[in-house]
Amino acid sequence: MPDYEVLLKETSRKLSKALEHLDYSYNKISNLPDQLSDMDDEIMETWESYSSRFARVSDIFVTQFLRTKIALEEPGFKGTTRDYLNKAEKLGLITDANEWAMIRELRNAAAHEYNDEDLTAFYQKLKSLCPTLLSIKSVIGS
Q1: Fewer CB within a 10 Å sphere, N or C end of the chain?
Q2: Which distant-in-sequence residues (6+ apart) come within 8 Å of 98 by Cβ?
Q3: Where are the alpha helices (DSSP H) in 2-115?
Q4: What's 129's DSSP letter?
């Protein structure tokens, strides 16, 4: 059986670092245009970096941190990602499992090709959900 305390500590360290990078990118894109038609190559590169950091934080938090934290609370718990999100909400680790399911969907959608209109909507959604990702700073310290 894995040492979940050690695993949680390592995951928290990795997540903290990823959150620092996401926070930096979020501050950087906050004042940039989110309409693809208004972006030059430099702005597009900044948005792509932000998108990647968003996906990394959501991935580490959901697939590593929450699973490990829940394993500490309920060692026999098994389920789908949605089951883990629902359990995390019940345990008070997140406030809204539906919002986190949407974050996971965005993370999964990041690898797909988009037309200009879809990409604009994608970036706007990432931007609107970033405060939820950044709010986990308080969870990983507990």
Answers
A1: N
A2: none
A3: 4-29, 41-59, 67-73, 81-90, 97-109
A4: H
Name residue, tokens 């030059």.
40
Q: How many CB atoms lie within 10 A of CB 18?
A: 19
Full-model pTM: 0.91
CA atoms within 13 A on the CB side of 134: 15
Residue with tokens 């934290």: 69
Which residue shows structure tokens 């699973």? Answer: 67
Distance CA 134, CA 10 (A): 19
| pLDDT tens readout for residues 24-41 | 999 999 999 988 889 999
Question: Residue 7, exposed/middle/buried by CB under 10 A (0-12, 13-18, 19+)?
Answer: middle
Nearest to 132 by CA among 99, 110, 109: 99
Q: Which amino acid is located at 78 in the chain?
A: K
The domain spans of the chain are: 4-136
pLDDT digits (tens, 9 = 90+) for 71-127: 999 999 999 999 999 999 999 999 999 999 999 988 877 766 666 778 888 899 999
Classify domain 4-136 at the CATH class level.
Answer: mainly alpha
